[in-house]
Amino acid sequence: MTQGRIEGSTFIFPVRIYYEDTDAGEIVYYANYLKFAERARTEFLRHFGIYQSELLEKDRIAFAVRKAEADYRKPAKLDDLLDVHTRLVKLGGASLEMVQELKRGEETLVSVKVRVACIHLEGRPVPIPTNLRHTFEEMLGENHGR
Predict the structure, then answer these.
(1) Which residues are catalytic?
(2) Sign of the C-alpha dihedral computed for residues 86, 88, 90 and 92 taken in this order
């Protein structure tokens, strides 16, 4: 069973801020938001039955971040409970684009736009396998129907 839940076309993953995530002022270190976003993307895939360990073992493919753009608006602090909202916005031949918002309640603290590439373990891009493509197309259908 995965952590997180679906609301509409968005996957929501909770993240608690621990001391190890913060600096001396109890403010989250900026790079940790990217770690939280990565965890949420992994759980997003897992929620839809896509396990990265299986992709690596069986198909020798992985999803690797090609580009990430973060907009830091407000800091999270020690003991905050954040929700990472993840939504698929675009499907390419060998890539996915997602928008992620890290929120404290209704307040968006950080927005991340990320493009991940489907790559063979040798490092070259490969087309997204058909079975995964169908799953992603269904997600996009839900996104565009709203």
Answers:
(1) 23
(2) positive
